[in-house]
From TrEMBL, chain A:
<dbReference type="InterPro" id="IPR003593">
    <property type="entry name" value="AAA+_ATPase"/>
</dbReference>
<dbReference type="InterPro" id="IPR050388">
    <property type="entry name" value="ABC_Ni/Peptide_Import"/>
</dbReference>
<keyword id="KW-0921">Nickel transport</keyword>
<keyword id="KW-0406">Ion transport</keyword>
<keyword id="KW-0472">Membrane</keyword>
<keyword id="KW-0533">Nickel</keyword>
<keyword id="KW-1003">Cell membrane</keyword>
<keyword id="KW-0813">Transport</keyword>
<dbReference type="GO" id="GO:0005886">
    <property type="term" value="C:plasma membrane"/>
</dbReference>
Automatic annotation (TrEMBL), chain B:
<dbReference type="GO" id="GO:0016887">
    <property type="term" value="F:ATP hydrolysis activity"/>
</dbReference>
<protein>
    <submittedName>
        <fullName>Peptide/nickel transport system ATP-binding protein</fullName>
    </submittedName>
</protein>
<dbReference type="GO" id="GO:0055085">
    <property type="term" value="P:transmembrane transport"/>
</dbReference>
<comment type="similarity">
    <text>Belongs to the ABC transporter superfamily.</text>
</comment>
<keyword id="KW-0067">ATP-binding</keyword>
<keyword id="KW-0813">Transport</keyword>
<dbReference type="InterPro" id="IPR017871">
    <property type="entry name" value="ABC_transporter-like_CS"/>
</dbReference>
<dbReference type="GO" id="GO:0005524">
    <property type="term" value="F:ATP binding"/>
</dbReference>
<dbReference type="InterPro" id="IPR003439">
    <property type="entry name" value="ABC_transporter-like_ATP-bd"/>
</dbReference>
Length: 275, 201
């Protein structure tokens, strides 16, 4: 049985159009996803494709004007608002996308220690900082004294010291050095090897492929396909959906190709102009 | 035309020097990559080159003269975080048209949906807002574009599309481009020359 199961999830926002007239905006339609223990599932897709909303729906932190339908279950238990409130921060940990999610009035070391559930909070925090390349004295700083990449590493520390069974990471890597990105991905992999299920939300396909077992490709609020990470190779012959193939071929190292919508195929073109 | 950094040094207050005596020259028609670890001063260097920030020592010259302090700036910087580069109380259309009016084909090639222009910046995603910022910077008088992690937050397809547009425009108008990125693959793909920031000083 998968640890996390999302079945036919749909999310609709109610917005005010003009005056008191309301309109319904569907943002996710019939989305399904399953994650086993010890498995890393990457969720990739364009910005605005609903990747973050999926995370927010699982965690029960969508805004009030969102209506959710479909089924979500964690460890066989339906994820109702009461259930998720008990699980998050304990059995389910979250790395939010925005570095503004840190408490601006609390030293970042204390924010990490607060999340520790077993063992010595101070020791766990120091170990996490050492692992992600944060100097010990960073623990005494406040969020405004950190660079974007450092704040991101604090967020990852908070999520990983909790010892949760499911880790949902929403764009954890932008702004980090390539070396720190690699270290963070290695840490995720190590958690998965110990049995943690990981949902890794990213627009960085290359980063996703270095650790993911499966890749779920999102587009316009729906899952186009869930594919094995190993299928991303060569010219993408084993990828079933044209969008997935286009995403793969658009990477700078794979041709930097732009999909040709009218012909329905992907054109490889050289962009470097002759100097 | 040449954009030149002459022995630029920068320190914030009495802190350590961020960098000292950085020299670099960029010609129109060139696409130059700038590499370096985060926190080494690449973004500050770009801010100084574009005239957003002043250097503690040294000067920036455009064809042997100081950067103009009035009117349209021929050196345009595209920032890493678009949400911090726009007035949150202006709608996207007003933001984009502040310096010039991009035409329909420009919007199309940057995949800007005209509906976005009527929204507030907070109602657009980072990638959508970045495209507005790119259109804003691509006026005909622009001679140099400094792209500081311009497409880091975009998916691969959108990234490839935007670079295609920007590079074609740069080639046809003979603009100079400086590309700051951690993505070595991207730099190798599009740049005609690569500078390591640490070797400038």
């Amino acid at each position: 049985m998968p640890l996390l199961e999302v079945n036919q999830l749909s999310i609709t926002f109610t917005q005010y159009d003009r005056g008191l007239r309301q309109k319904k905006v569907p943002v996710i339609q019939n989305l399904s996803l399953a994650v086993e223990r010890g498995e890393i599932v990457a969720v990739v897709g364009a910005s605005g494709s609903g990747k973050s909303l999926l995370a927010h729906a699982i965690l029960g932190i969508l805004p009030h004007n969102a209506a959710v339908s479909g089924r979500m279950a964690f460890d066989g238990q339906p994820l109702t608002p009461t259930v998720i409130r008990k699980l998050r921060g304990k059995r389910i940990a979250f790395v939010p996308q925005s570095v503004q999610s840190l408490d601006p009035l609390m030293r970042v070391g204390d924010q990490v220690r607060q999340a520790v559930r077993t063992g010595d909070p101070a020791a766990e925090q120091q170990r996490a900082f050492a692992q992600y390349g944060l100097a010990p004295q960073v623990a005494r700083r406040y969020p405004f004294q950190l660079s974007g990449g450092m704040a991101r590493r604090v967020l990852v520390s908070i999520a990983t010291v909790s010892g949760a069974e499911l880790l949902i990471a929403d764009e954890p890597t932008p702004g980090m050095d390539p070396a720190v990105v690699q270290e963070t991905l290695r840490a995720f992999k190590a958690f998965a090897d110990k049995g943690t299920a990981i949902v890794f939300i990213t627009h960085d396909l290359e980063a996703a492929l270095t650790i993911a077992d499966k890749v779920a490709v999102f587009h316009a609020g729906a899952t186009l396909e869930v594919t094995q990470a190993a299928d991303f190779e060569g010219k993408g012959e084993r990828l079933r959906h044209p969008y997935t193939r286009a995403l793969w071929l658009a990477l700078p190292q794979n041709g930097f190709a732009i999909p040709d919508e009218e012909a329905g195929e992907t054109q490889i073109c050289s962009l470097k102009h002759e100097a | 035309m040449q954009l030149e950094a002459r022995s630029i040094s920068k320190r914030y207050g009495e802190e350590q020097w961020l960098f000292r005596n950085a020299n670099a020259a960029l010609q129109t028609g060139e696409v130059v990559g700038l590499l370096g670890p985060s926190g080494c001063g690449k973004s500050t260097f770009c801010r100084i080159l574009a005239g957003y920030d002043s250097s503690t020592e040294g000067e920036v010259m455009l064809d042997g003269e100081r950067l103009p302090s009035k009117g349209y700036r021929p050196v345009q910087l595209i920032f890493q975080h678009p949400e911090r580069a726009v007035n949150p109380r202006w709608k996207a259309g007003a933001i984009m048209n502040e310096g010039w009016q991009p035409d329909g084909s420009m919007l199309e090639s940057l995949e800007i949906n005209p509906e976005w222009l009527n929204r507030w910046p907070s109602e657009l995603s980072g990638g959508e807002l970045q495209r507005i910022c790119i259109a804003r910077a691509l006026a005909p008088h622009t001679r140099f574009i400094l792209a500081d992690e311009m497409t880091t937050m975009l998916d691969a397809i959108t990234q490839a599309r935007i670079w295609k547009t920007v590079l074609e425009l740069a080639a046809s108008r003979q603009m100079g481009l400086m590309v700051v990125s951690h993505d070595r693959h991207l730099i190798d793909r599009i740049c005609t020359r690569v500078i390591d920031f640490r070797s400038l000083g």
